[in-house]
Amino acid sequence: MSKEKSKKPKKETPKPKIGEVDKRQIKLLKSVIEDLINKQSVEIIDLLAGKKNVNEFAIAEKLKLTINQTRNILYKLSDFGLVSFIRKKDKRKGWYIYFWTLDIFQSLSLLEEKLKNKLKVLETQSHNRTQGRHYLCTTCSIEVNEETALLNDFICPECEEVYELSDDSEVIEHIGKNIDKLKREIILVSEERIKQEEKIGKEKQRKINRAEKEKQLKRKLKREETKRAKEKLLKKEGKLKKKKPTKKKMPKKKPTKKATKKKKPIRKNTKNKPSKKPAKKKPIKKKK
Q1: Domain limits, the chain
Q2: What is the DSSP letter of 41?
Q3: Contact 168, 131 (CB under 8 A)
Q4: Domain at 23-102: CATH code
Q5: How far apart are CA 161 and CA 36, in angstroms?
Q6: For the chain, what is the radius of gyration of the CA atoms?
Q7: Helices marked H in the chain — which ranges?
Q8: DSSP states of 72-83 as a string?
Q9: In this structure, are residues 43 and 26 in contact, taking their beta carbons and an 8 Å threshold?
């Protein structure tokens, strides 16, 4: 019987903590600092990456520089928008201390822009090499384009040697390799920048949600306070009434018109009253 191979569960890669910067990002950030300032300032990335509000005196101590030298480096980075700072007054000494934070998103954006500019330069060089001819003076090791060679009658003005047509195939190949390398670096930097942008967006959304919850809680507490205050006032005045069960109101019936009875004429009692006798008529005498 064939033994069934037991499938091992895949190890889950640990999620990076908030504020944590991976090695790839640090490498890219160091290349930015080296390009902008110098190699000695590169170590500042190790001190600021993934941290907030780092004391400038602690930075100076670890870099083994004076506070003024450290501030000069940080101010240069601040001019490019790569670092931000807050300042606090020392209560004992009375002077201000600066606390610095690295802006990773801005640093990666700047690096991406610089790489794109370099790529444009290399692409123009490659285009010029493939489209035009170049001539070389072997004595002076000076290379010129076809227009310059024509102006000088294909003779070097320095040593008066005749120019030789240079083979651009190797140069074009070298430029092509550099272009491919730069394109890969730009894709890498762009991916890291997008990751950082998403992280910033999530943090902003968290802050908005937190602020909204705090507002709702404050409103709720305020409503409860006003309700309690009203109840206290009503108790003092003795006007607090218990809630009575509400009765269903029956619809009122329209009043019906009653039939009006006709009044009978009142008859006078004539029995007791004396009856009046009719007066006798006098006889009428006839004239003779």
Answers
A1: 23-102, 134-166
A2: G
A3: no
A4: 1.10.10.10
A5: 41
A6: 53
A7: 23-36, 44-48, 56-63, 67-79, 104-131, 146-151, 169-237
A8: HHHHHHHHTTSE
A9: no
Judge whether 40 and 72 are in contact, CB under 8 Å.
Answer: no
Question: What secondary structure letter does DSSP report for 42?
Answer: G
First to last CA, the chain: 182
CA–CA separation, 37 and 40 (whole Å): 8
Q: What is the pTM of this model?
A: 0.60
Give the whole-angstrom CA distance, residue 226 versus residue 233: 11
Return the structure tokens found at 66. 């004076």
31, 115 Cβ separation under 8 angstroms: no
Pairing mode of beta strands 96-102, 54-55: antiparallel
> Which residue, chain included where needed, has tokens 């004992």?
92
Query: What are the pLDDT tens digits along the chain (288 aa)?
Result: 444 444 454 444 444 443 455 777 788 888 888 888 877 778 888 888 888 889 989 988 888 888 888 888 899 888 888 888 898 887 887 788 889 998 888 888 888 888 899 999 999 888 888 888 888 888 888 888 888 888 888 888 888 888 888 887 888 889 889 999 889 988 988 888 888 888 888 888 888 888 889 999 999 898 888 888 888 887 777 755 555 556 556 666 666 655 555 555 666 555 555 555 555 555 665 554
- C-alpha to C-alpha distance for 94 and 228, rounded to whole angstroms: 48
Residue 20, CA atoms < 13 Å, CB-side half-sphere = 7
